[in-house]
Amino acid sequence: MLWIESMKNDRVKKWKKLLTRKGREKERLFLVEGHHLIEEALKEKIVKTIIIDEEKEVPKEWTVNEKEIVRVSKNVFKEISETETPQGVIAVCDMLKQQKLTYDQGKYLLIDRVQDPGNVGTMIRTADSAGFDAVILGKGCADLYNGKTIRATQGSLFHMPVYQHILEEIVNGLKINSVKVYGSALKGARDYRSVEKTDSFGLLVGNEGEGVQEQLLAMCDEKVSIPIFGQAESLNVAVAAGILMYGLSN
Amino acid sequence: MLWIESMKNDRVKKWKKLLTRKGREKERLFLVEGHHLIEEALKEKIVKTIIIDEEKEVPKEWTVNEKEIVRVSKNVFKEISETETPQGVIAVCDMLKQQKLTYDQGKYLLIDRVQDPGNVGTMIRTADSAGFDAVILGKGCADLYNGKTIRATQGSLFHMPVYQHILEEIVNGLKINSVKVYGSALKGARDYRSVEKTDSFGLLVGNEGEGVQEQLLAMCDEKVSIPIFGQAESLNVAVAAGILMYGLSN
């Protein structure tokens, strides 16, 4: 088992680069922190290296090769950890490979420029719960491999096909295949409660402040909204997406 | 207009104490940051002092007395600000006064030990949107006056009666007044989609990891759950609360 205590070690420098989107995309690697999430990553066979804090142990039930474990000093661990109360274990993982996206009958969540990684991660978790077939992140969304996104998915990113793609193409692809696409909007939209529930549709949700872009919304088969009965101006996007994912499904 | 540039100034020290729950509860004051939220606080007439960054101006349309404005140096402002990209204005406010809680027909959200202030704030925002009459925070919840809670409410804490109270008493009070109480649970519960929608009920949701406490759940008229169709183990509590608040209401 390798032991690293210097911040200047090349591997430490490389890991630190994985804390940025640019670094992750260059190396096609990302970091996963904490026991539960790493166990999910192990099932997916994407773990390349396990970084363990000097005072912690790799759980015996994990099937990992000794060669893949690196023990590091407290200070080195802190440099790479992104959580407030670290569990002392981080995995370096290969980015997830997705099958080619098909436009079969099914349920699809399309996310337009949602910037908060917690919101993106929470929506992936909800899409998994609601039995969705895929989540598609358009340009301008928080990074799927951001530590906060991953933690908010609570592991659902390992179960749920998540694509990064141009949303116009996805909307068109779904419509060509007769999968109806609903765009969430605050105004000029139909109350979601009056929409007939189905098992095949696309749902498009948008940016925290601005909602879905106009040109994308215009491409949708129908605009849907959640009625506001009180004085709030809008709902949090992850909550709204949850209400719509369950509310539009059978 | 007062000008403060020293961190050692007594007012600065007092404001810094308002960053902790203990300090807020002692002084019965809290801080509100950013234009939108302060405008809501001004409407409620709870603003005592406006702290403005040396490079910013108090908007002309705000009806505030010159005596109530304190201009501070960049460094002092940073000490009190809790946001990543500060708008340069913070208001010191009196805690909100609530009418005595009645147990009339209506919709009530009861929150048991939800620890993340973002979750608590988001649920208050959703309760406002969904036309709920009151939110009750039980013991062990994130503080209503935590900066993160306030920001997540997006101002709904100023529109929505929010009480801090022992939940057992609330559940009993509602039941005595024939307001049905639903407790959210993962197991042994009825699918919320089969519950008849009404305009009068209590909904009890619980801690991120553990859910609602057993003894509280046992007091409810019925346990309800949201079906999980995928591989996720559970939903985020704020998303679940949103689905149930809308899903159980007319």
From TrEMBL, chains A, B:
Q: Which domain of life is it from?
A: Bacteria
- Coiled-coil region list: none
Under the heading InterPro entries, the entry gives:
Alpha/beta_knot_MTases (IPR029028), MRM3-like_sub_bind (IPR053888), Ribosomal_eL30-like_sf (IPR029064), rRNA_Methyltransferase (IPR051259), SpoU_MeTrfase (IPR001537), SpoU_subst-bd (IPR013123), tRNA_m1G_MTases_N (IPR029026)
Q: Which family does it belong to?
A: Belongs to the class IV-like SAM-binding methyltransferase superfamily. RNA methyltransferase TrmH family.
Annotated Pfam families = MRM3-like_sub_bind, SpoU_methylase
| Assigned GO CC terms | cytoplasm
Q: Which GO terms describe its biological process?
A: methylation; RNA processing
| Name of this chain's protein | RNA methyltransferase
Keywords in alphabetical order: Methyltransferase, Transferase
Domain spans labelled RNA 2-O ribose methyltransferase substrate binding: 31-99
A GO term for molecular function: RNA methyltransferase activity
Source species: Pueribacillus theae
